[in-house]
Amino acid sequence: xxxxxxxxxxxxxxxxxxxxxxxxxAARELAVRRxxxxxxxPLVDNAQAMGxxxxxxxxxxxxxxxxxxxxxxxxxxxxxREDVAQPLYVGRTxxxxxxxGGDPALVDWRAPASRPFYTATPFRPEGVSRRRHIRTLxxxxxxxxxxxxxxxxxxxxxxHGLTGEAALLRALxxxxxxxxxxxxxxxxxxxxxxxxxxxxxxxxxxxxxGTGKTAVALHRAAYLLxxxxxxxxxxxxxxxxxxxxxxRYIADVLPALGETGVLLAGLGQLRPGLDARAEDPADVAEVxxxxxMVDVVAAAVKDRQGVLRGTREVVVDRERIRLRAGDVARxxxxxxxxxxxxxxxxxxxxxxxVDLIAQRVADxxxxxxxxxxDLLDAEDRRALRREIAGEPAVADLVEExxxxxxxxxxxxxxxxxxxxxxxxxxxxxxxxxxxxxxEADASWTVADVPLLEEADELLGVDDSAERAxxxxxxxxxxxxxxxxLDLLHGSRSHDADDDEESEELTAGDLLDAEGLxxxxxxxxxxxxAERAxxxxxxxxxHVVVDEAQELSxxxxxxLARKCPTLSMxxxxxxxxxxxxxGASSWAEVLTPHARTQWRMxxxxxxxxxxxxxxxxxxDVLAASGSQLEAPRSVRSAGEFPAVELLTEAELTDxxxxxxxxxxxxxGTTAVIAPVSRFDDVVAALTAALPAVTSGGAADSSAGPxxxxxxxxxxxxxxxxxxxxxxxxxxxxxRGSSDLYVALTRATQRLAVLxxxxxxxxxxxxxx
Length: 767
Fold this sequence. Notes:
By secondary structure, the chain is of the alpha/beta class. Helix content is about 45%, strand content about 15%. A hairpin with a 2-residue loop joins β4 and β5 (about 140-150). The chain starts with 7 loop residues before the first helix and ends in a 13-residue tail after the last strand. Mean pLDDT is about 90; it is low at about 500-510.
């Protein structure tokens, strides 16, 4: 067949794909029409009907988003089945067929029927004779890759066992864009098993660099949203990542899969209104991350509850009333019985203190009367208590002994006072106590967020004033609505002969004041993610945690509170733990919160890192003493890492030159430098190259980036320049983990520039 003759298979697939896009267009038009109908539906008269209208608008809006997302690469491929004549097409979304009794025109990749597309092999064909991957550009079919799964006698299966190897290798060798893309076309069997795993309990996905942990976690999120749509649409799904750079990197994946109702946040952004990006020194973060900080925060709260040292005189109507510590302690005990939450117990303390002072005043008044007779009746005593409650001196004393506190105020006061720290840390060493001391106006750090959340749980919010105000606003709305109805009725009595007006008012008569007021309430069309982001107490139906090995015990406590059902997907690699507060075993960090409700799955194949680079990284891992094995790379880049030994004077200029050369090639480029070299490297690159970004603001889609080792976690780049690996090893809290991370970020090219001797574990690069 000549090169000008169209491939019949390609022509046939183009015809079929064109038909599927026509169905997609029709489905979108229907969703748009139904959403418009829901928006323009007649005004409703009660809260339930209004809620149903809002739900309908959201439902059809979500469907439109899903269909729009499916536009790019709608069709993934097809399955030819041994016992069914009609092939089954698999795509980004499901499209129904004309025949209700047959297969869908297109099966969603998450549906059970599509599973053989990712799992069938020649050893276990699952009833599939051929799997076809269909490549498209826009709506045009550009190529097909076929895999015959029923082998002829004497044929042998591929030893790698990769699903859609041609499509996979094409994706792996493609240039990176600075944004993660979905892997829905190339999901492998071990990944698919994890993606479709049961949502109950905590699923830990342990996997080395390049095994696709993050992609698997995000596709699992999309799968769970498809499978449990009703439940998760109400409760929401949270994805927690290690850094803002990482969250920016993964931000496009779920929208590309049609899922936009997911909240992405770092630990520092989990608290509404707070964006904590500052990092504590490693030893400070480790202390703040200990589970014993639960007791420290509780002790700090108790230290602000009615603790009177010595005696105090309160002047009431020119009378001096002496209070002793024991008297106030009894009032404190009663207040704590009223509520376990500090701010909610404060009114009880206020009342108890007023009662105590009132009794002292009454006793003194009685002592002034001959015979000590009590002349105060019940009304007199109530008046006396009201008078005492209004005394500024009493209010000041309550504010001193039982202040109304926010979590921020509690922690600022604690950190700024060595005396308060000492009182809250019984049994601690002076060295550890000193790590908590800081200025009251210091910025909040990521490690502070779990402590602020813990304080919130102990302080509570006295919202009685807000609730009373809301009730007053509601009543005012009802009153306004009633006045409107009265005016309508009055107008009707004057214009009874006007048939058109009479008909309109008759419909109005069906409303009562409450229904009319409900019409005036603003509809809440915010997505679940938007509402969850604004509500600190929101609990999610499922939580995905990436780079989970870095989380402290206190961070896990927060996440367990955010998801009481413990339906979580936790992905990470213990070999990459860099934080002193991070995990050395999954059992250690999860058992206190999940007990036995967790299980582990492993990813063993490295799809990112070429063999030439991974062999060096595997040596570093082995030398660290880790019991974990490096994942097996599936490809070679054909290019060995470049190594240059430089003088001190040459280093930064050479880093800039090598980075410029690599940035001139296709794809993304990153420089990973130890902390001691970071500022110098950033300065050199900023002076030499345009569009360089660094640290927490790094964005590889705009140009080269400069990162510290821990900031590179979870990211990948076509080219990586590693500066001074010996310092990476020596400076990090877990330096071998940092070096392992730095060596495994490159998908194509690695350059190592150094002035100090390379670590012994990198012997493959020496000489």
